[in-house]
Design a protein that fits this description.
Oligomer: heterodimer
Radius of gyration of chain A: 19 Å
Largest sheet of chain B: none
Mean pLDDT of chain B: 89
Distance between the termini of chain A: 35 Å
Order of helices and strands of chain B: HHHHHHHHHHHHHH
Largest interface: A-B, 31 and 25 residues
Order of helices and strands of chain A: HEEEHEHEHHHHEHEHEEHH
Structural class of chain B: mainly alpha
Low-confidence stretches of chain B: 274-283
Shape of chain A: globular
Helix content of chain B: over 70%
Strand content of chain B: under 5%
Number of helices of chain A: 11
């Protein structure tokens, strides 16, 4: 895959934030004491963590742990009952005009297989917040779409109907859609679910390359602990409340991880070797 | 037909309605709103009955009533934790029942009511055509101005929301546009057959292409052809124009199914082997 390094073309607020903060210490997402309830039921309790610039953060937890809600809080789609959410120095309200800096890949896109849109059309949807209301796509928008299709390795498939692609290819299309804007933060909600092991591996390798080459900060939600242990810089385990936050080697094997999942784990083989080396017990 | 004034107004009015309904039809098909369209169109009977019973222009009351029903469908299905088809079934039957009760109470089972049920395109005036043109322009304007938002929302609502698309506005806007389109189409085919106008053209287009631009093009073309041919046939054979238009539309749909590159019926009929990728080339 050839790396495509994009021009820095921040809008005012994000540009100001990036200019006023240092690269390594720059915090892109900061959650402090966040509590969320949906329909009167508590979903997240006292969530605290930060996502630093160019960090790969893995969020793990069992089904129903509130992982997707956590992403929706970061996107400003769910308002916390209490606590503070700060994304690139902005509150969720201010973020509405800066969503083109955030790429989002949802867990499942339940679309009609005969929906008459091509790969190009689907990726172009990702440009919607760059094009603006009542405007049509420009040549620059079309080029950005083709560049994104290229970097996810789908050259030659741009005219194919989205419903004709394999599950792995569709995930790449949705990744390209999340990247074809001025993406600084990539939020992925179980993007490897439903993929076989080789397709999962290909997707994760692609993601790691993109993160390095494009300078992205990534929040990756999954319940597959092994996949994240190999690729994440840090991991957070939640099950309504935060159970553990640390390097993959610290998280793997922790009693608090088993407590969150409420079961014994046999994921120690190979886990954490990418980052932690001897840290994994 | 065009040598008569009523033929000219019918043709122009019909074409305006065909363009609006066929464009709308694309979103109804891809967003799977066919049942909602049917529900809103049948609910128009309640609105017409209110107008007849109250002595007000039934098209005006039908417009207000259909918009209310459309917003009710949207509100209940998004907030009321009821499936969309459930709430459509409830509102549609309740509106029809209201219509029957009001019509019976007003003793209004007459020719005028039948024209709303089965259409009376040949009876429209130039004033009607102008009013129709304004409403069609508003509906088409909404769909053109919000096209990319409607497409994104129809394909993947969650990511559209996360990308800043005002999905609630777009959803209610679409439902209200469907309601107004249905009301302006009452004159053409009547309440009972309107759903054909907002479903069949999109389905026809979808048989012929997998590119949304061409699907819309084929949809609009089939709508216009159906109106022109249907009106001419009804004029020549002295049969109901609304029903004839719908039958022509259905015939075009069957033709599209037969010619569909995806189904390859024609290739099989003429003994050719289906070649992989040929359907795509046909695009």
């Amino acid at each position: 895959m050839s790396a495509v390094r994009r021009k820095e073309s921040h809008s005012c607020k994000v540009g100001e934030y990036f200019d006023s903060t240092e690269g390594g210490a720059r915090v892109l997402i900061d959650l402090e004491h966040v509590y969320v309830s949906l329909g009167g039921h508590p979903v997240l309790e006292d969530i605290n963590f930060t996502l630093k610039d160019r960090m790969f953060l893995g969020v793990i937890g069992p089904n129903g742990a509130g992982k997707t809600t956590l992403l929706r809080v970061m996107l400003g789609l769910v308002k916390p009952d209490s606590g503070t959410v700060c994304v690139m120095g902005m509150s969720p309200g201010e973020l509405k005009g800066e969503l083109h800096h955030i790429g989002y890949v949802p867990q499942n896109v339940l679309f009609d297989p005969i929906f008459p849109v091509s790969v190009f059309d689907v990726v172009m949807m990702g440009r919607i917040c760059c094009i603006g209301r009542f405007r049509f796509a420009s040549r620059a928008d079309k080029k950005a779409v083709m560049d994104s299709i290229h970097i996810v390795g789908l050259d030659g498939l741009e005219k194919r109907l989205i419903g004709e692609l394999s599950g792995g290819q569709q995930k790449r299309v949705f990744l390209a859609r999340a990247l074809c804007r001025e993406t600084k933060i990539l939020l992925l909600d179980e993007p490897t679910s439903g993929l076989d092991v080789p397709a999962q591996r290909q997707f994760m390798d692609l993601l790691t390359d993109l993160k390095e080459n494009l300078g992205l900060s990534v929040v990756f939600v999954s319940h597959d602990v092994n996949v994240l242990a190999k690729h994440a810089d840090e991991m957070v385990c939640i099950n309504r409340a935060m159970h553990i936050h640390g390097k993959p080697g610290e998280v793997i094997g922790s009693d608090r991880l088993q407590e969150a999942y409420r079961c014994e784990f046999d994921f120690l083989i190979g886990a954490g070797d990418h980052h932690a080396g001897g840290e994994a017990p | 037909m065009l040598s008569y004034g009523f033929g000219q107004t019918a043709l122009i009015g019909g074409i305006l309605i065909a363009i609006t309904c066929s464009l709308m039809s694309f979103f109804i098909i891809v967003r799977r709103l066919a049942f909602a369209g049917m529900g809103i169109s049948h609910a128009a009977f309640g609105g017409v009955a209110i107008g007849i019973a109250a002595g007000v222009n039934p098209i005006v009351t039908a417009g207000g009533f259909c918009v209310m029903v459309a917003c009710g469908i949207g509100w209940f299905s998004r907030k009321g934790k009821l499936h969309e088809d459930t709430i459509i079934g409830i509102l549609f039957s309740a509106s029809m029942a209201l219509g029957v009760v009001l019509i019976a109470a007003a003793h209004a089972y007459n020719q005028d009511l039948l024209s709303y049920l089965f259409g009376s395109i040949l009876a429209i005036s130039w004033v009607d055509v102008i009013a129709l043109g304004v409403l069609c322009a508003l509906a088409v304007g909404f769909m053109v101005l919000f096209f990319k938002e409607l497409l994104f929302f129809s394909f993947d609502e969650e990511t559209a929301t996360a990308s800043g698309v005002p999905v609630r506005t777009v959803y209610y806007g679409l439902l209200i546009t469907i309601a107004l389109t249905i009301v302006v189409s009452i004159k053409l085919v009547g309440i009972i057959l309107i759903s054909a106008l907002i479903v069949i053209p999109g389905a026809t287009g979808l048989q012929l292409s997998r590119n949304y631009r061409r699907v819309i093009l084929f949809s609009v073309a089939s709508g216009i052809i159906s109106v022109v041919v249907g009106l001419q046939l009804s004029f020549s054979f002295n049969v109901a124009s609304g029903a004839t238009i719908v039958l022509v539309m259905f015939a075009l749909f069957l033709l599209a199914v037969a010619l569909s590159p995806r189904r390859k019926y024609m290739m099989r009929l003429f003994g050719r082997q289906a070649v992989p990728g040929e359907a795509q080339e046909a695009e």
